[in-house]
Amino acid sequence: MSAKRDTAGAARRGERRSRPAGRDDILRAAREVALEGGWKAVTVRRIAERIGYTNPIVYEHFGSKDDVLVELLRQGFAELLEGIEAARGKAADPEEALVGMAHAYVGFARTAPDLYQVMYGLGGVPFGVSETWREGWEVGHAIGAAVEEILQGYGRDPGDAQDPVLMLWGQVHGLVALAMAGRLEGGYDQADRLTERSVRDALVAWREGQG
């Protein structure tokens, strides 16, 4: 490491030590470490080092690394919910609202892949579906409400929305996961295009009484 980088690092640590480290500093540090080395690289020690402190400062705010991840999970779902609700509010009709919500979903994963991994147990994050479904309920409810409105407009029972929502989410989540893993040649742009195609295909099927 060069002297210049040592000096810059020392200055950054000194700046952080000029005020007490708070929860936001710890959460931001965890995300920085994850973006550099993945979530498996995130430890309490590395979080503390990132903000220029030792381990006890983290434990003043969080009981464990998992508690840090749970808080990030909650933040992620809150941001995703805000994005998809904003997209729904801008649309001229229910069908375009669902398309917009799907684009917002992919857009969130593109701009905050670290949070998306925490939310859905990807990238070495030690959470499973059984531990995260409660946090994601509001997102699922928002998407479900949009699908119910569409089904009702097609003269179908809005109570039939659960399976269509799960099938559509499975497709979109799968495309996002493939893009995140570098398995799509076109990356997130391709995932976004295929997501819109999936939504529009689903709309046709629902309109025709299928799905």
Descriptive key words:
2 domains, 0% strand, 211 residues, mainly alpha, Tetracycline Repressor, domain 2, Arc Repressor Mutant, subunit A
Report on the structure:
- The protein has 10 helices and no strands.
- The protein has 211 residues and is mostly helical.
- The chain has 2 domains: 3-59, Arc Repressor Mutant, subunit A; 65-207, Tetracycline Repressor, domain 2, CATH 1.10.357.
- α5 (65-90) crosses α7 (113-120) and α6 (94-111) runs antiparallel to α8 (129-153).
- The longest helix has 26 residues, at 65-90.
- The model is unreliable at 1-16 (pLDDT under 50).
Briefly say what this structure is.
By secondary structure, this protein is mainly α. Helices cover 75% and strands 0% of the residues.
Mind describing the biggest β-sheet? none
Radius of gyration: 20 Å
Query: What name does the CATH topology of the largest domain carry?
Result: Tetracycline Repressor, domain 2
* Mean pLDDT reading: 89
Number of strands: 0
Write down the secondary-structure element order: HHHHHHHHHH
- Helix segment tally: 10
CATH architecture of the largest domain, by name, is Orthogonal Bundle
Distance between the termini: 58 Å
- How much β-strand is present in the residues? under 5%
CATH superfamily of the largest domain, please? Tetracycline Repressor, domain 2
- The CATH class name of the largest domain reads Mainly Alpha
- Which outline best applies? elongated
Q: Please identify the structural class as seen in this structure.
A: mainly alpha
Share in helix: over 70%
